[in-house]
Specification:
10-stranded mixed beta sheet; RibDG_C; DHFR-like_dom_sf; 6 helices; 246 residues
Length: 246
C-alpha cells in the first residue's frame, strides 16, 4: 500500500513509501481505551452494493485492513440487523499475537434477539456478548441469557440502549479496544453519543448509483474528525480520521 498522508507515525513511512505487514500494523495502532469504526463506501457514498451487502463493494486492500483492524481489537461492536444481514459468526483466530487468541463480538439489539450465527459457542472462535436495554423485556433477556450465558447479556438503559455505559462495562471486563463495524444506525448512535474516537473509512473506486444508505444514518452527530493517515492500493483509498484532542 502506498502512503499518501502519514501523521500517525511519520518515522515509519513517508508519503510515496510502500508499506505492508508490521509497518502497516504500526500505522493502525491506537491507545489502550479506544473506539474506532471501520466502514466502506463507494465514490458516491453508498455503504453497500446493489444487493444491500458490503461484501459486494469490498476490495482486496479493504479486506486486508479489515483483518488487521480485527486483529488489533478486543471486541467487535455490531448492530443486530447488520449481523443478521451479513451473516456474522464469532470471530476466528488472530493473524498476529494479541491479549486473547480471538477477539470477541458484542451485538447491539434493542429487542435482545441474538443473531443465529452468534447464538452458539464455536470451537476456535471468540465469545459473544449482547448489549441491550431493559425495555427488551424479561422474556427476551432470559432467552438471550440462555443462549450466551447470564454474564454475557449487558443491560444498559431503560427505553434506549446506553452505549456509553455498555462500553464502560466492556472495558471493565478487559475489552477496551472496540471496533465498531456498523451498520449505519449504530455508527450514527455511537458518534452522536460522543463515543467515537476514530473512523477508518475505505473508499472503493466504484460509482454505485442506486439508493443505498450512507455509512452513518439516523440521529445527527456533527462529530469533527480529521485525516491522519491515507493509503492507496489498486485505486482503493484507506483513511484514518481521528477525533481532534481538546
Amino acid at each position: 500500500m502506498r502512503v499518501l498522508l502519514n501523521e500517525i507515525a511519520p518515522r515509519t513511512a513517508a508519503p510515496g513509501d510502500e508499506v505492508s505487514g508490521e509497518a502497516l500494523a504500526v500505522l493502525y495502532a491506537h491507545p489502550e481505551r479506544w473506539t474506532r469504526a471501520n466502514m466502506v463506501a463507494t465514490l458516491d457514498g453508498a455503504s453497500t452494493g446493489g444487493d444491500g451487502l458490503t461484501g459486494s463493494i469490498n476490495t482486496p486492500p479493504d479486506n486486508e485492513v479489515y483483518r488487521l483492524l480485527r486483529d488489533l481489537a478486543d471486541v467487535i461492536l455490531v448492530g443486530a440487523g447488520t449481523a443478521r444481514a451479513e451473516g456474522y459468526r464469532r470471530p476466528g483466530p488472530r493473524m498476529r499475537p494479541g491479549r486473547t487468541p480471538h477477539p470477541d463480538v458484542a451485538v447491539v439489539s434493542r429487542s435482545a434477539l441474538v443473531p443465529p450465527g452468534l447464538a452458539a459457542p464455536a470451537r476456535g472462535r471468540g465469545g459473544a456478548w449482547m448489549v441491550t436495554r431493559a425495555a427488551a423485556g424479561e422474556d427476551a433477556l432470559e432467552r438471550a441469557r440462555a443462549q450466551l450465558g447470564a454474564d454475557r447479556v449487558l443491560v444498559h438503559g431503560g427505553i434506549e440502549v446506553d452505549l456509553g455505559a455498555a462500553l464502560a462495562d466492556l472495558a471493565g471486563r478487559g475489552l477496551s479496544r472496540v471496533l465498531c463495524e456498523g451498520g449505519p444506525s449504530l455508527l450514527a448512535d455511537v458518534a452522536a453519543q460522543g463515543l467515537l474516537d476514530e473512523l477508518c473509512l475505505t473508499t472503493v473506486p466504484l460509482l454505485a448509483g442506486g439508493e443505498a444508505r450512507r455509512i452513518a444514518f439516523g440521529v445527527p452527530s456533527d462529530l469533527e474528525l480529521r485525516p491522519r493517515l491515507i493509503l492507496e492500493s489498486e485505486g482503493t483509498l484507506l483513511h484514518r480520521f481521528v477525533r481532534p484532542t481538546p
